């Protein structure tokens, strides 16, 4: 990468990081192009050069947030054999990150009306279900793919419940864990 490309990558990254910070304070309605470029001290043209549109920027924010989140989840699940404990480790990491970054999570939920974001959510959910499928296979579920899809939906709903409460919901987390008990027990 040459100096110009390196500078462009740093500017793009700074715009994304700035948006993640700003999202905590102002939400989707306040996350305007003007607010972003003012916060970072760059020209409006710089923003459009890197993202093309506000929707393109929201997509980049979504990807960055979830890429970071995915890394945290993978770290929490590393070394844990497929099954209940691995699912619970990944779920706890997800829920904690969503609580920690509540403003960003709320902004991204609001942004789901954007077609680009909706498509990204569907693709990421499909990916996450594929990651969870071996866990449901290890649990002996007769329909592991479908169980994984439902699990991803339940975790997202749990994150919403905690987001609205502004805190951990132990009973919600316990209900998730109960879902993973042996079918006999």
From TrEMBL:
Gene3D superfamilies: Tetracycline Repressor, domain 2. Residues 32-51 bind DNA. SUPFAM superfamilies: Homeodomain-like (SSF46689). GO terms for molecular function: DNA binding. It holds the Pfam family TetR_N. Residues 9-69 form the HTH tetR-type domain. The keyword Transcription applies. InterPro entries: Homeodomain-like_sf, HTH_TetR. It comes from the Bacteria. Keywords: DNA-binding, Transcription, Transcription regulation. This is HTH tetR-type domain-containing protein.
